[in-house]
Amino acid sequence: RCAGEAAARARAARLPPARLPLGALREITPLVEEAVFAWLDVRASLARRGCEGGTAPARVAEALRRVRAWTRERAAGQEARVEPDARS
Prior knowledge:
88 residues; mainly alpha; 64% helix; 0% strand; elongated
């Protein structure tokens, strides 16, 4: 409930959630402390997702390496199947 309300307020204010004033978040729940902003930051949120297939920069770089290698292998395989006179 709290996260949804905070997201709705951020959308209404046309702000990212991390830019909502602390007071606005405390209107939703008085349990919110200053430390919440580290959890609302987009970069920090992406970086926390370090599992396989996650959005952490290292995981994204790893996935890109795999896709690029796969693409190179597929392209090499396609070139090998083309008949010599079909290349001209």
